[in-house]
Amino acid sequence: MQLQASSITIDNAVAADIPTLCLLLEDLFGIEADFEADTEAQRRGLAMLIAAPDRGIIKVARTAEGKVIGMVSAQLIISTAQGTPAAWLEDMIVDKDYRHAGIGRTLIDAVLQWCKEQGVTRAQILVDTENTPAVGYYQHLGWQPTQLQARRMFL
């Protein structure tokens, strides 16, 4: 089923959206090599983010019937390089049945507008380097690669 971006609404996720958001994350983590779906962990993380609107936000795309069909999150950090807030964007996913209609771009625009309202001067997003459609998509939207490479350590 294809929709046009103009026929959806973008708003903030609420606790009642968490089960659907977990399903979207399951799809996303099925694409990414670094993560595996863990519904209980995702449920906890989503609940923490929704409960802390001063630290971040989850924007969702909804059909006219209210069905959540996409999401993107942003979390605030402080950039010592710029002396301002910055944001990490994560969890960008649109349900496969609704892709290629501009919904992803609409979600990203909405979350970047929220970032600007928070005083953010730089947004960053991690992209699985082997997910060539995502790499191309973000390049198409104007996201620039950096010389930095993400590293992680589980604690």
Secondary structure layout plus pairing:
Elements: E1 9-12, H1 18-31, H2 39-50, E2 56-62, E3 68-79, E4 84-94, H3 103-117, E5 123-125, H4 132-140
Parallel strand pairs: 4-5
Antiparallel strand pairs: 1-2, 2-3, 3-4
Which strand order does the major sheet show?
Answer: 1-2-3-4-5
The topology string of helices and strands comes to: EHHEEEHEH
> Largest beta sheet, briefly?
5 strands, mixed
- How many β-strand stretches? 5
Provide the residue-averaged pLDDT: 92
Q: What portion of residues belong to β-strands?
A: 15-25%
CA-based shape: globular
Which class do the helix and strand fractions yield? alpha+beta
Helical content, roughly? 25-40%
Question: What Rg is obtained from the alpha carbons, in whole angstroms?
Answer: 15 Å
Question: pLDDT below 50 for ≥5 consecutive residues: which ranges?
Answer: none
Give the end-to-end Cα distance, rounded to a whole number of Å: 42 Å
Count of runs of 4 or more consecutive helical residues? 4
From the structure above, extract its key features.
alpha+beta; 155 residues; single chain; 4 helices; five-stranded mixed sheet
What does this structure look like?
By secondary structure, this protein is an alpha+beta fold. The chain has helices at residues 18-31, 39-50, 103-117, 132-140; strands at residues 9-12, 56-62, 68-79, 84-94, 123-125. Strands 1-2-3-4-5 form a five-stranded mixed sheet, with helices on both faces. Helix 1 packs across helix 2. It is globular, with a radius of gyration of 15 Å. The model has no long low-confidence stretch (mean pLDDT 92).
